[in-house]
Specification:
The chain is mainly α. The chain has one domain: ACP-like (Non-ribosomal Peptide Synthetase Peptidyl Carrier Protein, Chain A, Orthogonal Bundle), CATH 1.10.1200.10. The chain has 3 helices and no strands. The longest helix has 15 residues. The chain is globular and about 25 Å long.
């Protein structure tokens, strides 16, 4: 799931999946806008067959936190 998430995330950044680390922050390090993040959430719902509405996922700040969230809620 970790690599799958990083592949998806790499579509929204100039970095490749291999360059994205768990410590990177979406806004500060990956330079994602609010629109990019919202679009990513929609794609994540489709990709991982999950519904993130009212889950608190929008409060995660780092790639690692997002991966932990996905793994805990799969």
């Amino acid at each position: 799931m970790k690599e799958q998430f990083k592949e998806l995330l790499s579509q929204y950044t100039p970095l490749t999946a291999g360059e994205i680390t768990d410590e990177m922050r979406f806004r500060e390090d990956l330079q994602m806008s609010s629109l990019d993040f919202a679009t990513l959430l929609g794609e994540m719902e489709d990709e991982f067959d999950m519904d993130f509405e009212d889950t608190g996922l929008t409060k995660v700040a780092t790639v690692g936190e997002a991966i932990e969230f996905l793994e805990a809620n799969k």
